[in-house]
Amino acid sequence: MKFVDLTELASRNLREALLRNTLTTLGIAVGVASLVAMLSLGVGLQELLSGRLQRTGLFDTVVVTSRRSFGDYGRPRKAEAAPEPIRPLDEAARKEIAGLANVLEVYPEIRFPAELQYQDAPRMMTVAGLPESARQREVFDGIKGAFFTAANADETILQIEFARDLEEEPLSLLGKELVLRYAERQPLASPTRAGAAPPDAEGAANWGFSVVPREVRLRIVGIVETEPGSGFGGFGRSRVFIPLQLAQKLSSVQFGDLRQAMRTSATPEYLNLSVRVNSAGKVPAVQESIKKLGFQTYSLHDVAKSLRLAFAVLDSFLGAFGSLALAVASMGIVNTLVMAILERRREIGILKALGAADRDVKQLFFAEAGVMGLLGGVLGVGMGWAIGRIINFGINIYLKRQELPPQTIWSVPWWLVVSAIGFALLVSLVAGLYPASRAAKLDPVQALRYE
Amino acid sequence: MSGAIVRTEHTNSTAIRAAGVSRHYTMGESVIRAVDDVSVEVRAGEFVALLGSSGSGKSTLLNLIAGLDRPSSGAIYAHGRDLAQMTPMELAKHRSQTVGMVFQSFNLLPRMNLAENVELPLRLAEVDRRERAGRVRESLERVRLGARMHHRPSELSGGEQQRAAIARALVNRPTILLADEPTGNLDSRTGEEILNLIAEINQSLGMTVVMVTHERPLAERYAQRQIFLADGKLVEGNSVQ
């Protein structure tokens, strides 16, 4: 029989024992709904969490250090441990890393001690440079005021605790100015001031540097709730942020600069570089190619991997519980169809007498199972979607009472819709296998015998 | 396609030939010989009545000819092809294309209207959708039920139901019509009406008809030849031309 005729006859047959078939279909729908509701919450939770983590910038970042920076500190280095010369993490290295595939940007982490003067008393603080790309990070969603107007503007963003230190009403600080006093580094050998930009004369002798106090006036443009960690592996917390380019321009003495003073080359070296990768999945590959360049790398990719693993386990648990209802529903299909065979013995006999092959009868019952599965699947996805929404709604009422921002912890991506319907169809067809082959094997002579 | 039912011309050829056909059933220990070594021949275009008391094996023989059942031994040829050697698919095709069946209890599907009932064999034979409506109408008009196409079987009289069943048997243009006690559930006047219709089909279309009945007077009136069965065996000398 042709597919259209099969589905037509199947739907017609299903309409006959309407109550029974509706109940069976509803059984499948409830099974699918529980599956979809469970998984939509699992997926939603995962999306919520990984979305947040993604935007912390932790998982798509690789921190690069020179081989000598860590590890061997405080230990005598063995000559054979480093057969090749150690590469300095300088501007050339930065450019090379920036040229690698999948690398979005490479920036140094700059944090330095400074004194901040606002109205009365000066306060010691660690000041950190923020790259332009930090604008996208989640912590700036709730910023009061705005992000820096330009990549090198004389502006600052304060963390709210620090702002409270300065003013009772932190928001009144917006637009006001404070004075940043810092220690500028001036190379001794160079007649001109070398900024953060590397000197052109590479290999020039390093004569150390002198430290000169300087100050700069900064306009307060924004206040954030939490500290925007500008990577990891930094030096403690900082509560005052300035544009990264400005930080570089200031050429302030950093924590690691003592070491630089002891070295012979005049080429400034970065203590570490943060490498932003275009997707978290590409992190290992980028890490690998940076290692080949001769640097040490560190990333939270492994942490992210175990997070994904944890969610995979959670999802499969939720899925297994959800599928349980579907398994029960599949038995309903078997039951309904076996009943239908008993009732429709004569009809099967007639069909065979009219020229139906075993295959036609089998396909007909199969199609009936399939139609129930498909309808149940579609209905179930709708129900699951609604259940997920209701749960989400309920949770948000709770969150609101706790004075927390509303969250979407429920997500029904298209792949879940398609695979839930597909799964329902598959389960129904498997459930239909036995009744269908039983119906096909029915002896028409027996079936047509007068009752 | 004109859609007209074409008169089949087989007047001198053999439509059905059974050669030493047996059908045995095992019931526990005992073997029931429903049909036992029967050899019979039906010419194309012939109207043959299969007579016998109940349990004589006449319905079993009809089912064997219909391809609903397979012989335990022997051969049954329909237009020269041995049904016993056919694969299940070929046998289904034989039921669909070569024979049309009419039953005592009509066997119309109660939830379908007449047009849908008559369309069923066309669906099974995978006849093109556009062609079906015309053939259904033609078939129903032939049995004078053109006006009742959209009625359900329960809304019709017994005779009308049997006429619809005949329309269904004809719709796929088979060459052989097999009727199993077609008048058994009808009063005698309606029964005659049905037999007149079958005889007319036999005449006008040249269709081979094999009818199982236990009513000898009817068989004598309508059939060209009667074949008698008793205990699964052909009763010799009783084959009346």
Keywords for this entry:
heterodimer; A: 451 residues; alpha+beta; 2 domains; 6-stranded mixed barrel; 4-stranded antiparallel β-sheet; B: 241 residues; alpha/beta; Rossmann fold; disordered N terminus
Overview of this protein structure:
With 451 residues, chain A is α+β, with helices and mostly antiparallel strands. Chain A folds into 2 domains: 3-54 and 307-448, no CATH class; 61-300, no CATH class. In chain A, 48% of the residues lie in helices and 17% in strands. In chain A, the strands form 2 sheets. In chain A, strands 3-4-9-6-8-7 form a 6-stranded mixed β-barrel. In chain A, helix 2 runs antiparallel to helix 8 (301-343) and helix 8 (301-343) runs parallel beside helix 11 (414-440). Chain A is elongated, with a radius of gyration of 34 Å. Mean pLDDT of chain A is 81; it is low at 69-74 and 190-204. Chain B is an alpha/beta fold. Chain B has a domain at 14-108 and 174-234: 3-Layer(aba) Sandwich (Rossmann fold). Chain B contains 7 helices and 10 strands. Chain B has helices spanning 58-66, 88-98, 114-124, 129-142, 158-170, 188-205, 216-222; strands at residues 14-27, 30-43, 47-51, 73-78, 81-82, 99-102, 176-180, 208-213, 225-230, 233-234. Chain B has a 6-stranded mixed β-sheet, sandwiched between helices. Chain B has a 4-stranded antiparallel β-sheet with strand order 2-1-4-5. The chains are: A alpha+beta (451), B alpha/beta (241). Chain A binds chain B through residues 1-2, 4-5, 9, 12, 16, 346-347, 349-360, 444-445, 448, 450, and chain B through 60, 63, 66, 68-69, 88-89, 92-93, 95-97, 101, 103-105, 107, 109, 111-112, 120-121, 123-126, 129, 168, 172.
